[in-house]
Amino acid sequence: MLKRRFTLGSGLAISIVLLGCQGGGMRNPDSSSKLAWTVENPSATKGADKSQASRAAVREGDSSLDALREGRSSATPASSPLKDIYFEFDRAHLRPDARETLNANAQWMKSNASARVEIEGHCDERGTNEYNLALGAKRAQSARDYLITLGIAANRVSTISYGEEIPVCTDKSEGCWHKNRRARFVIVSPRPAT
In degrees rounded to 5, what are phi and psi of residue 192? Predict the structure, then answer.
């Protein structure tokens, strides 16, 4: 009997294809759209009005997968109360600057007791998909464990790994790879007040 191998990478590719098949297919920029599309980021526009530019921005509470599905950047908005933390190459341990950021994130969570957070683990492109999914999971888990030691209830924090599948930067440079080695914090729907 043949066993099929299914990775997140192929799952994302299938999801993108399926999303393109729904609702009349993928958008195909043409001259009537008056947008200057680029190969590197088809969501980037030049000369677009503010409503078009705001659609390309990440909205608070959107996961990286939501942003990918909608063709938007997965970068955390500067206005987000929860900031990303970054990791060294091939490591999941928390650096001192990451601990400082986690302390601030924990303070926000204590002030917003009904908020729940999903921590996304991300990696740069080096390594196999399977290895990077495991490393991303370790990164998200180390951030979660630290938040719990700071007094955040475990049931308020979940984790997910995207490995290398949803980069925030696609250049082939150390500066870009550093941006992708991160844990991203997404605020999920708050619990109803009791």
Answer: -65, 145
Query: Residue 168: which residues within 8 A CB-CB, separation 6 or more?
Result: 73, 74, 75, 122, 179, 180, 182
Tens-digit pLDDT profile for the chain (194 aa)? 443 344 445 444 433 333 333 333 333 333 333 333 222 333 333 333 333 333 333 445 689 998 889 998 899 999 999 999 999 999 999 999 999 999 999 999 999 999 999 999 999 999 999 999 999 999 999 999 999 999 999 999 999 999 999 999 999 899 999 999 999 999 996 555 55
Question: Which domains are assigned to the chain?
Answer: 85-188 (3.30.1330.60)
54-to-38, 48, 105, 177 alpha-carbon distances in Å: 17, 10, 25, 26
